[in-house]
From TrEMBL:
Chain ranges of the Phosphotransferase system enzyme I N-terminal domain: 6-127
GO molecular function: kinase activity; metal ion binding; phosphoenolpyruvate-protein phosphotransferase activity
PEP-utilising enzyme mobile domain mapped to chain residues: 154-226
EC number: 2.7.3.9
Pfam families: PEP-utilisers_N, PEP-utilizers, PEP-utilizers_C
Binding-site list for Mg(2+): E433, D457
Protein name (record): Phosphoenolpyruvate-protein phosphotransferase
Keywords: Coiled coil, Cytoplasm, Kinase, Magnesium, Metal-binding, Phosphotransferase system, Pyruvate, Sugar transport, Transferase, Transport
C-alpha cells in the first residue's frame, strides 16, 4: 500500500526514485573479547581497504568540484589511515589482549584524538576531527553499519533527511540526487534556496518523512504542490511520470521567453528580472534562464564552504569570476550575512537565546571590522571587472548603514592610495528586511543608492514567525496586508528620493506576488534562476494600470486569504489559472 504525505513545495518539479535515507546510523562498540584474533585482524584490514577506496573517491570528487586545497583534506585522511603508529597499536590490542577490532580502533583513536585536541596549534587541533572522521568510517565498516557519503552517490535517488545543511546540499550531484524531502524547513530555508539553485525538486516541512520512508524503497515527490507518495503503486507511478513529462514540456515552452525583453502587456519596459546565486558556478544557470543580472549573490556561502575566513585574494577571484561571467550586466553582492542558521566551522558564535535576533550579519561585521574590511577590499578590487553593487544585510538603523558605508569608502581610498584600481560607478545599497528600516525607508533613501527587499526575513520579523519552523508556518504570510503595506512603504520611500528598489526574497518570483509587485512599480525582481522565465511570461500577460488598481484594493484587505482571492480574481483570465 502506498502512503501519501503532504509538506511544503520548496523547489518545483517532480522526482521519482529510490529513497536514500541520510541519517547517522546508531551503533554501539562493545568491549567483548574475541577468541579468533586472526579473523578480527582480517576484518580490520578489509575495513581499511574499503575506507581507503572511499577516501580516494572523495578526494577525486573534491578535486573536481572544490579544488586542490579542499581535496588535500582527504590526502590527510589517507595518511591517517596508513599511519603505522595507530594501526599497529590496534593490532597489538587485538592479538595480545583479544580485543575486538572495533573496540581496539576506537580506543587507540580516542588516545590520539585527546592528544591532538589538546594542542595549541590550530592545525593540529583540526587533525583531531580528521582522526575521528577516518576511524568512524573504519568502525562502521567493521560493524557492517551503512556508510553514507552524499558526494559518492552514484545512482538516482531522492534524499530523505531531517534537515540538510547548506554544505551537504552543495555536495549533491543533480545527476543522481533527483530530489530531496526533509522533516524540517520551508520555502525560504537555505536548503530550499539551494535546491532551487541546483534545480532539484524538493518538499520540506514533512515533519516525519524520515520515520515513514524506507531506505531503497521507491518514492515520488512533487516540489510544486508539496505532495509525496511513498511506495507508490504502478498506476500512481504511471500518472506521475506523465505529470513529470508535462512539467518538462512546460519548461521547454517557457524557453521561448529566454531572449525576449521583459515587457508588460501594455508596454511597460522598466521591470528587470535577475537571478539569486550562492556561488560563482551558479552564474551559468542565470544566463541560461534569461536573467538580466544578479540581484543577490549570497557571499556567505564562500565562507561556509570553507575551513577558514576566505582571504582577500580568494574572495577577489570569486567576485571577479561572477562579474566577468555576467558580462557587464548588473551584479549585486551582499556582504557577509552569517549567523542565525548560517554557522562557520572555524568561528565560535556567542551563545544566545535567539540567534536570529542576535549577533549576525552587519552587526557582526561592524564588530569584527577586520573580517569586514577584507571582504570590502576584495569587492572593491573586483569592481573593475563589471557592474557592481554592494549591499549590506540586516540593517536596522541609519547609523549602521552610515557606518558600513563609511568603512567601505575608507577601504576604497586605501586601495586607491596603494595603487589599485577601483570602479567609480559602484552603487552602495542595503537589504530591507527589518521592519524598523522599512518604516523609515524614505529617510534611508537619502543615504543608500538602492534597496533590495528581503521578504524572507521581512516576513519572519514582521509576523514574529520563525521562517524555519513548520509549527508556525501558518503565520508565515507573504500576502498578509501588513507585509504588502511595508513593501509599498519601502518602494515609495525610495522612489521619492529617485532611488531604485529590487526584491531578492523568494516572494519576487511567486506567480501571485508578481501582479502586486508590478502594481507597486518594483524595479528589479531577483529570484531563483528557474523562476525567471515564468515571471517574464506572467509580466507579458498583465497590464500595469490594472495591477495598480489591484494593489489599491489589496492594501485595504484584512487577511492574506482576501488578498490572494483578489489577485486570483483579477488575473484569472489573463493567466489562464
Ligand atoms: C531575505 O531575507 O529575503 C533574503 C533574500 O536573504 P536570506 O534569505 O539570505 O536571509
Ligand atoms: Mg535575509
Amino acid at each position: 500500500m502506498s502512503k501519501k504525505l503532504h509538506g511544503i513545495g520548496a523547489s518545483n518539479g517532480i522526482a521519482i526514485a529510490k529513497v536514500f535515507k541520510l541519517e547517522e546510523p546508531k551503533y554501539e562498540i562493545s568491549n567483548n573479547t574475541v577468541s579468533d584474533s586472526a579473523s578480527e585482524i582480517k576484518s580490520l584490514e578489509t575495513a581499511m581497504k574499503k575506507a581507503n577506496a572511499d577516501i580516494e573517491k572523495l578526494q577525486e570528487i573534491a578535486l573536481e568540484k572544490l579544488g586542490a586545497e579542499k581535496a588535500a583534506i582527504f590526502e590527510a585522511h589517507s595518511q591517517i589511515l596508513q599511519d603505522p603508529a595507530m594501526i599497529d597499536e590496534a593490532k597489538k590490542m587485538i592479538n595480545n589482549d583479544k580485543n575486538n577490532a572495533a573496540y581496539a580502533i576506537h580506543t587507540v583513536a580516542q588516545k590520539f584524538i585527546t592528544i591532538f585536541a589538546g594542542m595549541e596549534d590550530p592545525y593540529f587541533k583540526e587533525r583531531a576531527a580528521d582522526i575521528k572522521d577516518v576511524t568512524d568510517r573504519l568502525i562502521k565498516y567493521i560493524l557492517n553499519v551503512p556508510v553514507l557519503d552524499l558526494a559518492t552517490i552514484n545512482e538516482e535517488v531522492i534524499i530523505v533527511a531531517e534537515d540538510l545543511t547548506p554544505s551537504q546540499t552543495a555536495q549533491l550531484d543533480p545527476k543522481f540526487a533527483k530530489g530531496f524531502s526533509c522533516d524540517m524547513g520551508g520555502r525560504t530555508s537555505h536548503a530550499a534556496i539551494m535546491a532551487r539553485s541546483l534545480e532539484i525538486p524538493a518538499v520540506l516541512g514533512l515533519k516525519d518523512v524520515t520515520k515513514q520512508a524506507k531506505h531503497n524503497e521507491v518514492m515520488m515527490i512533487n516540489g510544486t504542490t508539496g505532495e509525496v507518495i511513498l511506495a507508490p503503486s504502478a498506476d500512481e507511478i504511471k500518472t506521475w511520470t506523465a505529470e513529470r513529462t508535462k512539467f518538462f514540456q512546460l519548461q521547454q515552452e517557457l524557453l521561448a521567453f529566454k531572449d525576449k525583453p521583459t515587457v508588460s502587456k501594455d508596454g511597460y519596459q522598466k521591470f528587470v528580472l535577475e537571478g539569486n546565486i550562492g556561488a560563482p558556478k551558479d552564474v551559468q544557470g542565470v544566463l541560461d534562464n534569461g536573467g538580466q543580472g544578479i540581484g543577490l549573490f549570497r557571499s556567505e556561502f564562500l565562507y561556509m564552504d570553507n575551513d577558514h575566513f576566505p582571504t582577500e585574494d580568494e574572495q577577489y577571484k570569486a567576485y571577479k569570476g561572477v562579474l566577468e561571467g555576467m558580462q557587464n550586466r548588473p551584479v549585486i553582492i551582499r556582504t557577509l550575512d552569517i549567523g542565525g542558521d548560517k554557522k562557520l566551522s572555524y568561528f565560535k558564535f556567542p551563545e544566545e537565546m535567539n540567534p536570529f535576533l542576535g549577533y549576525r550579519a552587519i552587526r557582526l561585521c561592524l564588530d569584527k571590522t577586520d573580517v569586514f574590511r577584507t571582504q570590502l577590499r576584495a569587492l572593491l578590487r573586483a569592481s573593475v571587472h563589471g557592474k557592481l553593487g554592494i549591499m549590506f544585510p540586516m540593517i536596522s538603523t541609519i547609523d549602521e548603514f552610515k557606518a558600513a558605508k563609511e568603512i567601505t569608502l575608507e577601504e576604497k581610498a586605501n586601495l586607491i592610495k596603494d595603487g589599485h584600481q577601483v570602479a567609480d560607478n559602484i552603487e552602495i545599497g542595503m537589504m530591507m528586511e527589518i521592519p524598523s528600516a522599512a518604516m523609515l525607508a524614505d529617510q534611508f533613501a537619502k543615504y543608500a543608492d538602492f534597496f533590495s527587499i528581503g521578504t524572507n526575513d521581512l516576513i519572519q520579523y514582521t509576523m514574529a514567525a520563525d521562517r524555519m519552523s513548520q509549527f508556525v508556518a501558518y503565520l508565515y504570510q507573504p500576502y498578509n496586508p501588513s507585509i504588502l503595506r511595508l513593501i509599498k512603504t519601502i518602494i515609495d520611500g525610495a522612489h521619492k528620493e529617485g532611488k531604485w528598489v529590487g526584491m531578492c526574497g523568494e516572494m519576487a518570483g511567486e506567480e501571485q506576488a508578481i501582479p502586486l509587485l508590478m502594481g507597486m512599480k518594483l524595479d528589479y525582481f531577483s529570484m531563483s534562476a528557474t523562476s525567471i522565465l515564468n515571471a517574464r511570461q506572467v509580466i507579458s500577460k498583465l497590464e500595469v494600470p490594472a495591477m495598480e488598481q489591484l494593489v489599491a484594493k489589496a492594501l485595504t484587505c484584512q487577511t492574506a486569504e482576501e488578498v490572494l482571492a483578489l489577485v486570483q480574481k483579477t488575473t484569472k483570465s489573463a493567466l489562464n489559472v
